[in-house]
Structures are given as structure tokens and as C-alpha cells.
Design goal:
- With about 280 residues, the chain is mainly α.
- It is built from 14 helices and three strands.
- The chain has one domain.
- The protein has a three-stranded mixed sheet with strand order 1-3-2.
- Helix 5 (about 70-85) crosses helix 7 (about 125-140) and helix 11 packs across helix 13.
Length: about 280
């Protein structure tokens, strides 16, 4: 019975967006499908997931999970309703909430996505949550961290195949693997992504959010709030957030060029608020 109830919940959740889906421009999918054919293999994806799992474990070694099954299920439903429109059917995305007041979100290769309690507290509705998750999904779909290390299963390089590292290779291979994980954590917690990667993730996030049936300005509204907080000198905002004014302008231009509406689409504000109150994220 529990299985049937959960299945019905998921079906109802996705059906609630069906009308909005039909209103989304078919060109959005075309924009997300104009990339070159993937140059990576199924083995590469397997190694990407293994690499990301180690990064995710290190993240959880720094910050504890917020232990609330209902909230975790809700964030996963929202995240998967967005991820289904991304061009990575080879990835099983997983979403979780980190129990910290810091306002941030993180993604690891292989589809491990985290959003903080502080970020949820800053959000006003579900469309903002969807947009933040979409931004992190984009970092995964575009393999931004993976590309930093040329992580692939090529046979012509002793350090390019992570199967060798994961499979118990020699000490040099293990050392390289650990160094790569450390560098990835530096990107997430200290250095931030390259500007080009952030721009690409912002653009894809706008399109994915609209495709999922949400108001297209969710990311913009969320980032504007972060900018206001940071302007007041508060230290709750993660250190890796880049300059905002350029991002605002870029996102607005993307919405205009792609025909993404700031008026049409779902916000599901009441549902978001009710879940957050029950989870004691909001009072």
C-alpha cells in the first residue's frame, strides 16, 4: 500500500504541471539539444558517478544532512521534475538538504545535488527551489567539474581512466584520485566555478525551469535576495557566489531571447510553504 501511495503522489505531482508543460516552447528542448554528440562512453559515466559519490561523501563529512524524510522526498520530486528535461538520461539525479544556515547549493558529478536549509529559508516559493536545483543540475549535465580533470575511460593515458583508481590501482593513481577530489571540493567551497561555467548553468537553469512548468524568473528572484543579503555584510552567503549584477542582466537577456515568461508558470507557493513549515525550516 505504501508503494501505491508513493507512486500516486509522484504521478499527481507531475500531472500538476501538465498544462504548463504544454505551454512551454518546443524551441527550449531544441536549445538544450544543440550540443555536439557526447564524446564520453557508458564507462565514462560510471566513473563520473563514482567520482561524484566520493565528492558527495566528503561534502557530508563537512555538513550534516537535515534528517526529514518528507522534506527530502519533496525536494527530490521538485528536482526530478526539472531533471527529466535535462539531456542526461544516463544520470539518476539525487537531491538532499544540508542542515546549515549557510545559503548555498552544491552539485557533484554523477547527479548528487545538495541545497542548504539556509537557502530554503530564503526562498519564497517552489519555482525558486526548482531554479536553484536546475542551476546545479546544469553543472552536472555539462560536466563542469569532470572536464576540469579530463575524467574519462580512455585507454591511452594512465591517469585518465578512473576505473583504475576506483578499482584499487597503485599508489600514484590513488593519490591522483584524492587530489582530484580535493580540487573538486575547492571548486565547490572555496574557488567557485569558472565564469563561463556559471553563465552556462544560469542559461540552462532558466530553460529547464520553464520546461518544468514554473515561472521563468525563479533564479533571478532568488539571486536578487542573495545580493541584498550580501550587500548588508552578512556572512551566511557562501563564499563562491560570483558578482550578481552581471548575472541579473544575463538572465534577463536569456529570458527575453528565449521567450521565457516571468508572468506565466507555476510558483506553488502554498505547497512550498506548507512543506517548509511542517519540516520546521520555516516558522
Amino acid at each position: 500500500m505504501r508503494f501505491k501511495h508513493t507512486t500516486l503522489l509522484i504521478i499527481c505531482f507531475f500531472l500538476s504541471f501538465s498544462y504548463a508543460f504544454s505551454q512551454s516552447s518546443d524551441n527550449f528542448h531544441e536549445r538544450l539539444s544543440t550540443q555536439k554528440e557526447p564524446t564520453y562512453t557508458a564507462k565514462d559515466v560510471q566513473e563520473e558517478v563514482e567520482f561524484g559519490r566520493e565528492i558527495a561523501a566528503r561534502i557530508l563529512g563537512r555538513i550534516e544532512l537535515l534528517d526529514n524524510k518528507a522534506l527530502t522526498k519533496y525536494v527530490n520530486l521538485v528536482g526530478k521534475s526539472v531533471a527529466i528535461h535535462a539531456n542526461r538520461s544516463d544520470i539518476d539525479f539525487k537531491f538532499a538538504v544540508l542542515d546549515t544556515k549557510e545559503i548555498n547549493a552544491y552539485s557533484a558529478p554523477g547527479g548528487y545535488i545538495f541545497v542548504t536549509r539556509g537557502a530554503l529559508q530564503l526562498m519564497s516559493d517552489e519555482s525558486e527551489l526548482a531554479a536553484v536545483l536546475a542551476h546545479e543540475i546544469a553543472h552536472v549535465t555539462e560536466r563542469h567539474i569532470v572536464k576540469e580533470f579530463n575524467i574519462q575511460a580512455a585507454e591511452d593515458s594512465p591517469i585518465s581512466s578512473f576505473a583504475r583508481f576506483i578499482g584499487g590501482g597503485g599508489d600514484p593513481a590513488k593519490a591522483f584520485f584524492n587530489q582530484a577530489v580535493d580540487k573538486a571540493l575547492d571548486i565547490l567551497f572555496k574557488d567557485g566555478y569558472k565564469r563561463a561555467d556559471e553563465v552556462e548553468a544560469d542559461k540552462i537553469a532558466v530553460l529547464l525551469t520553464a520546461l518544468a512548468g514554473y515561472k521563468g524568473d525563479g533564479l533571478l528572484r532568488y539571486l536578487q535576495k542573495i545580493s541584498e543579503i550580501k550587500g548588508k555584510g552578512k556572512d551566511d552567503v557562501g563564499k563562491t557566489h560570483p558578482v550578481y549584477e552581471e548575472r541579473f542582466s544575463f538572465i534577463q537577456n536569456v529570458m527575453k531571447l528565449e521567450g521565457v515568461s516571468a508572468e506565466k508558470g507555476a510558483t506553488n507557493q502554498d505547497r512550498f510553504y506548507n512543506v517548509m513549515v511542517k519540516a520546521k525550516v520555516l516558522k
